[in-house]
Amino acid sequence: MALPPLPAFPTGFTWGVATSAYQVEGAVDTDGRGPSIWDTFAHEPGQIADGSTGDVTCDHYHRYPEDVALMSGLGIDAYRFSVAWSRIQPDGTGPANPAGLAFYDRLVDSLLAAGIDPVATLFHWDLPQALEDGGGWMDRDTAYRFADYSALVAAALGDRVKLWITLNEPVVHMTYGYAMGVHAPGRMMLFDAFPVTHHQLLGHGLAVAAVRAHSGSPVAIANNYSPVRACGDTAADRAAVAAYDALHNRLFTDPLLGLGYPTEIDFDLSAVHDGDLDVIAAPIDGIGVNYYNPTGIRAPDEGHPLPFEMVQLDDYATTGFGWPVVPDGLRDALVTLTTRYGAALPPLYVTESGCSYPDVVGPDGDCADPDRVAYLDSHLRAVRAAIDEGADVRGYFVWSLLDNFEWAEGFSQRFGLVHVDFDTRIRTPKTSYAWYRDAIRQAHR
């Protein structure tokens, strides 16, 4: 059954799609690119669910003209991609690798020629392995190396990039990569990983200045937000909810807006030096909201290593990943940011919104994904509802343009508007591609 038309969105609203370097580019040994922590991690036995790696994945590095044509066919306003740090500085330091910069130069020019605004994320989890060998984000020097790298990219791409994003989901990189060990670099440090939080945020603040020295385009950061659902009504449950909200939703937002670190969790703040919080709170032009689902929380049992316990929310349909489908959670996230931070909050962009399902290309050559169509429709309506409640939301980026290497899940989870055969790299637009194209056309009328 056809869905009713979407409600109108504000004039100038940005319609986009998103990817990230390690997930789509491939070409890991091409043109002087150095190894990243994900190259190392993905080749360790048992780390990736299906044993795959990002060595080739979608081969976007070589097939980007085809992918830009797919974006052009969608009619999007903007493409959010990430720059692979180890393509620009193979060891994470030193002068720029000209061949690495040349790839992004070609990509950006191709996007502009197609009438698509380039939105560049400078760090999407693929730290150069050489920097990890020196301590990674646990080491303060990495923040300064990130600023140097950001300056190289901004100097090369300048105002051709229409929106810069410094970091992608630093809370996920900290928790999954350093606290829990399920993502690269695979460290299991729990709350001892707090320096990773601080050094990423310090790197963000330094990168804001570095980018602005070379580009007049706006600068933002993309955070993951998950509204918290209390699974219990005791004082201990409420304390657990506050602790999780502080860790996941406020830890990487409060400091950006001059509020310092939340106090609901007793972090060791010895990594914080005088003046750091001022650097972190440098004015920014936007915050990206990556939303997938809310999180159920209750008080932990005695002896639990964390001050909260996560609970599966069972009253909802789920994606192929097993994540609950809760469109109102996106409205909640956007409105909560708006009411929590008030006038201090810069404009918001939904920089990731999407879902995985086990999509297959049928005998007729079509790839039907009605569940994704319903998902995107309901989440866009949630964004419109948030705007009606006062949230200043400027754009929406679907995750993702392409099926890709989905981190620890390998190729087992498909998020794309376009199906990718990972043996042949053949691209097949899904039903959701046509639906999103038509939604954009309607919005542009």
TrEMBL record:
This is Beta-glucosidase. The active site is at E169, E352. Belongs to the glycosyl hydrolase 1 family. InterPro entries: GH, GH_1_N_CS, Glyco_hydro_1, Glyco_hydro_1_beta-glucosidase. Keywords: Carbohydrate metabolism, Cellulose degradation, Glycosidase, Hydrolase, Polysaccharide degradation. GO terms for molecular function: beta-glucosidase activity. SUPFAM superfamilies: (Trans)glycosidases (SSF51445). PANTHER family: GLYCOSYL HYDROLASE, LP05116P. It comes from the Bacteria. One of its GO terms (cellular component) is cytosol. One of its GO terms (biological process) is cellulose catabolic process. It catalyses: Hydrolysis of terminal, non-reducing beta-D-glucosyl residues with release of beta-D-glucose. Substrate binds at Q23, H124, N168, Y292, W399, E406, W407. Its EC number is 3.2.1.21.
